[in-house]
Design goal:
The structure holds 2 protein chains of 2 kinds. By secondary structure, chain A is α/β, with parallel strands linked by helices. Chain A has 2 domains: 287 residues, NagB/RpiA/CoA transferase-like (Rossmann fold), CATH 3.40.50; 59 residues, no CATH class. Helix content of chain A is 49%, strand content 11%. Chain A has 22 helices and 13 strands. In chain A, helix 9 runs parallel beside helix 10. Chain A is globular, with a radius of gyration of 25 Å. The N and C termini of chain A lie far apart (55 Å). In chain B, the strands form 3 sheets. Chain B has a 6-stranded parallel beta sheet, with helices on both faces. In chain B, strands 8-5-6-9 form a 4-stranded mixed beta sheet, sandwiched between helices. By secondary structure, chain B is an alpha/beta fold. In chain B, strand 5 and strand 6 form a beta hairpin. The chains are: A alpha/beta, B alpha/beta.
Chain lengths: 483, 220
């Protein structure tokens, strides 16, 4: 990745994103409409919760026994005429793909949208060899032409509107202005014509995959446009990069995820196309299939009892669409392939750069992400655990000076919240102490280090009478110890 | 070799990471996982076909319900309507459908890609179909053709027999188990290709066939 593309840390990128009115409008439109559709699509199934729990159980089981299933997958893929490669990190995965592409002697490969190849910046690595990776997913093509990273797992170009896309296409496809309106159907038609030639000429395709079945050695791609079918069917050589956590034990297990994934991601009963292939098949499809199994921080995440659940993720993006933070700042602010709530826990674990340490704080802990997750990842609990680790690590490094205001306040809060008696005493004290700063029931312009808090947040003043006092006055039983 | 080194390192790390939590017999543990979701449908035959048709209509599929004896005529009429002079007819297509192709140029599914690309339409059967999700599954068996055949032409006409329609996805997965285990390429199709990538506005037809026609044979 070149220096120019190293993204800003979240606390710098987020305020800039909040200033972008167009981005705010696009995001609000997309997240609101897809939230409502997803709710309908999942409510339609009487057994939604059972599917969700089964998905969780299958993924947990697979992760606990990952070694068994990876070895089985490898054996089945090779028995079906495929070649399996192993890559410890992004550099190894990219090296493998670069060597395979070089062996074919091509300057151009077609590529189907894949989070994993984004994660390892495969396109950048291929470019070093002068190989162009043509993104064939419409949204990926748009962001590729705009030379921007994607901003959403599912709809990478949601930050672009139709007028912007038209301008990009006119330039990239070398068309006169009258040749193309900003009607989405016309824009899609232009992409179809441009890419059809590429599909027919391409000798090598690179893809990710949604699932791989250990039992049968089958790889699976879920998509809408048909570019996935094109890439996995027409070229002579297919290279698929797969995170090791994407394996499932049996063919039957797919019946769970292929119900929950489309309804969670695009809010459809089923996505238009799902392709399954097993190694190579005489007379149908590529003559060579290479499966690159990528670790990239996954085995380290697997070792962590809390973090392991993160690996259940099937990349549906439902958590992005319900997240109040994501809705306002968009995907770029996270500075990672994986934005939103899942990105806030996945990125620090997989990538683990120092700057990622602040991502778990990009959340209100409202829990909406957990509610919609089709594999029931308790994202809020993992966020809290990761925050704890960040603080512990800073304390251990003595990076936290004695007298750090936030740390002191939180330690104080821990003491105050420990028993009801202390809590009430603290409340009384605060009621007296807050008086100079209360304006219209809201605390404003707090002094010293607290100013940063009250400048950007509306904090309700502590009321004259607390609920607990009111309750006692009316003769209510003391709740202490009661259920 | 560095490849083996990476393999050993990854599997070693995975095994170490799961040392305390893995099952003695993973397959036995897998067999006991709770699956409290529906795996057998509840709709009777007519209701199942109605649901299938309704889902397809929602996706913008042109659906025709007909009797087996009328398939050739219906295929011919639909091909005429699409002005399809050049048609892909896969190996294993029933002879009874042949009259539909009279007067048209036909190519087999194993023709080169550019010949398939030049065709106006493709005709196929299917392996199984799912009512609840409006899904058709092709597994490359007789009459279905290789994958490129149902992908490159802009119109796909698919003949689905009533006996091939199950209500739920798990029922379809069970029927496809054998083909999957044998390594057959399988494609699920649920409506024409589509995108919502531009301002979330659904556009039918990007790279796959922009028109999908389903001929649903009620007495077969």
């Amino acid at each position: 990745m070149s220096d120019a593309r190293i993204p800003l840390p979240f606390h710098e990128a987020a305020p800039a994103a909040l200033e972008d009115g167009q981005l705010r409008r696009n995001l609000a439109h997309v997240t609101t409409s897809i939230r409502a559709k997803r709710a309908d699509a999942t409510a339609e199934l009487p057994d939604w919760e059972a599917l969700r729990q089964a998905g969780k159980a299958i993924k947990d089981h697979t992760l606990r026994n990952l070694g068994t299933y990876l070895r089985r997958l490898e054996a089945r893929v090779e028995a079906a005429g495929g070649t399996v490669h192993w890559a410890r990190d992004a550099a190894e995965a990219n090296r493998i793909v670069r060597d395979l592409v070089a062996a074919e002697g091509v300057r151009e490969v077609v590529k189907v949208k894949s989070m994993t190849t984004d994660e390892i910046d495969l396109n950048g690595a291929l470019a070093e060899d002068g190989v162009v990776a043509i993104e064939t997913d419409l949204a990926e093509l748009i962001v590729q032409l705009a030379e921007e990273p994607s901003s959403h797992i599912l709809v990478p170009a949601i930050h672009k509107n139709r007028a912007e896309i038209r301008r990009l296409f006119l330039e990239a496809f070398d068309l006169p202005p009258e040749a193309l309106s900003d009607d989405p159907a016309e824009l899609a038609g232009a992409a179809r014509r441009f890419l059809r030639e590429r599909f027919l000429e391409a000798r090598v395709a690179v893809s990710g995959a949604n699932f791989a079945v250990a039992e049968t050695g089958t790889t699976c791609i879920v998509e809408s446009e048909g570019n996935g079918r094109m890439c996995t069917t027409l070229p002579e050589t297919l290279i698929t990069v797969l995170g090791i956590e994407k394996v499932v034990p049996t063919w039957r297990d797919l019946e769970v995820f292929l119900q929950t994934l489309p309804r969670s991601s695009t809010a459809e009963r089923m996505n238009p196309y799902t392709s399954f292939w097993t190694g190579v098949h005489g007379g149908d499809g590529p003559r060579a299939f290479h499966l690159v199994l990528l670790d990239g921080g996954r085995s380290a995440t697997l070792a962590d009892d809390v973090g392991r659940a993160t690996l259940r993720c099937i990349r549906c993006s439902a958590c992005l669409n319900v997240c109040p933070i994501y809705e306002r700042v968009g995907g770029h602010a996270y500075g990672s392939t994986y934005p939103g709530p899942i990105g806030a826990i996945l990125t620090p674990q997989l990538r683990g750069e120092p700057r990622d340490g602040e991502l778990p704080y990009a959340s209100t802990l409202c829990g909406a992400c957990y509610d919609v997750c089709p594999v029931a990842i308790d994202i809020p609990s993992i966020l809290v655990d990761m925050r704890r680790r960040t603080v512990d690590a800073r304390r251990a490094e003595r990076a936290l000076p004695v007298g750090d205001a936030v740390d002191a306040a939180l330690r104080g809060a821990a003491v105050a919240f420990a028993t009801p008696r202390r809590y009430e005493a603290a409340q009384r004290l605060a009621r007296l102490g807050q008086a100079p700063w209360v304006r219209g029931g809201v605390l404003r312009n707090l002094p010293g280090p607290l100013a940063g808090w009250s400048d950007v947040r509306d904090l309700r003043a502590i009321p004259r009478q607390a609920f607990r006092d009111w309750w006692r006055e009316r003769g209510g039983a003391d709740g202490e110890g009661d259920a | 070799m560095s490849g083996d080194e990476a393999r050993d390192a990854i599997l070693g790390a995975v095994d170490a990471a799961t040392d305390a939590v893995r099952d003695g017999d993973p397959d036995a543990a897998h067999a006991t996982l709770a699956r409290d979701y529906r795996s057998v449908g509840a709709l009777d035959g007519a209701a199942r076909l109605d649901r299938f048709e309704g889902r397809l209509v929602d996706y913008g599929v042109d659906v025709v319900r007909l009797r087996a004896a009328d398939v050739a005529d219906a295929l011919g009429a639909r091909l005429d309507r699409r002005r399809a002079a050049h048609v892909v007819v896969p190996r294993g297509t029933p002879d009874a459908w042949r009259p539909a192709f009279a007067g048209r140029t036909t190519v087999r599914d194993d023709a080169p890609h550019d010949a398939l690309e030049a065709a106006d339409a493709t005709v196929s059967g299917c392996a199984v179909a799912v009512a609840e999700t409006g899904t058709i599954a092709l597994d490359g068996g007789p009459g279905m053709g290789r994958r490129a055949a149902s992908l490159l032409p802009d119109v796909h006409l698919c003949v689905v027999r009533a006996s091939q329609v199950v209500e739920l996805l798990p029922e379809a997965q069970a029927r496809l188990q054998e083909a999957a285990a044998a390594g057959a390429p399988i494609t699920w199709i649920s409506g024409p290709s589509a995108t919502s990538d531009i301002e979330l506005e659904r556009v039918a037809g990007v790279h796959g066939p922009r028109t999908l026609v389903v001929l649903l044979v009620e007495d077969a």
